[in-house]
Amino acid sequence: MSNSAPPEYTKLLPVDEHPETEYGSVDDGDCSSSEQQTTILEEAKVIARSSLSLIITFFLQYSLNVVSIFSVGHLGRTELAAVSLSTMTFNITSGVFNGMATCLDTFCAQAYGAGKPKLVGLHFQRCLCMVLTIAIPINLLWWFSSPILNVFVKNKELTDLAQTYLRIVSIGSPGFILFETGKRFLQAQGIFHAAQYVLYICTPINVILNYLLVWDKDIGIGFCGAPLATAFSYTLMAVLLFLYVYFIDGSKCWNGLHIRESFKNWGPMASLALPGVIMIEAEFLAFEILTLSAARLGTEVLAAQSIASTCASLIFQIPFGLSIGASTRIGTHIGAQSLANAQTAVTVSLEIATVLGIFITFCIYNGRRVIVTWFTDDAKVIEHALVALRILAVNQLYDSINVIAAGCLRGQGRQKIGSNLNLLCYYTVAVPLALLLAFREGWGLEGLWVGLGVGILILAVSEVFAVLRVDWDWVLKKSMERNNVT
């Protein structure tokens, strides 16, 4: 294994031959960025600055579904259950779109670092076309989801309502996909605030639409108003992001539509997109399995599990935002063939992950009682939830490292390793151990979270080892192969 850059990889063009950007220099031709030796402090500043915008973006985007649940929840128990079921189904299946889009964290960032902005635009178009193609069967699944959901939930009225929600929200799926891939297109250029600005506009509009379409006496349509508001918001997000690129910033990496080329050479992109899907879905599905399992432990335990899972989902947005910032930074350095800087970015990312994990653990552990009372005042639910949040707090120490280490792997273009480790740790360790401790050993909800935590700990250690024990010669070779694809 080689941990240093070969001499031929470090002979790069002078800085002033390219226009300056936050992430280095770039030219319209086939060229590379200059290797300016970076520092730990500089890398920390850049990653932290970009990650802050990403974290805000993820929180605002996550709020769209939360608003739907709140607006519909007051219509009745059946409607609340239906919107919860449909939102969970949408999150799981649309995770495929998010996972596939993460391949652009590698392709676009490395192309931009290599000084090939036109290739950045082509990668974006190829990924967009590939995800839109995959969206066809997923949309069909939403349209005919009632019989499938009925296998797990024996209530036809409930599953029919959930199907109606999914059918309406599917109208916004092209906008959702365009926004997800468009974010990566801009992030590769060091433009992290565009999506944040878009959501500053769309989030309050979504709240207003939910009120008008669900509750307003004149134009409200009840339950169906919530998914319609969400679908409109997704479409508006895509339109505003496009307008940002066209009128403000980001068009330097656009070289017009290339429809024919967009449907070529999907193989290399798919080879990173599929592992990206697995990395996103493996953890999400593991949490859903534990939530369904908690139902066997009683209503109070299920309610406590829902509180803990919601907290985990919200907290996840923080390290995930940092992981995108880290992967983009690392990928840009690799595309510029600047291995010393890439290694520094990896080191800084893992150090930030450790500090962040300690901070989140401290906040959740000491504030767990306040957090639980935000959700419920039921004494039994509070008792169970406090147990879950105590373990969740400890788990965050290494889950933050896990999530950010996965971002480092994406920056290196090694998603396959990450996907294999996720499958191995979640489904041969975390889930089986959680079910064993919860039901056979009688630990209940505590057992579910302890088992999950053990799996995450093993995953974090394994990913950090993989990130640090990397053949940088191979990473550079694969990067140059991607940047020579047309």
UniProtKB/TrEMBL annotation:
Pfam families: MatE. Its main location: membrane. One of its GO terms (cellular component) is plasma membrane. GO terms for molecular function: antiporter activity; xenobiotic transmembrane transporter activity. The chain crosses the membrane at residues 52-75, 127-144, 164-182, 194-213, 219-248, 269-290, 302-324, 345-367, 421-439, 451-472. InterPro entries: MATE_euk, MATE_fam, MdtK-like. Keywords: Cell membrane, Membrane, Transmembrane, Transmembrane helix, Transport. The keyword Cell membrane applies. This is MATE efflux family protein.
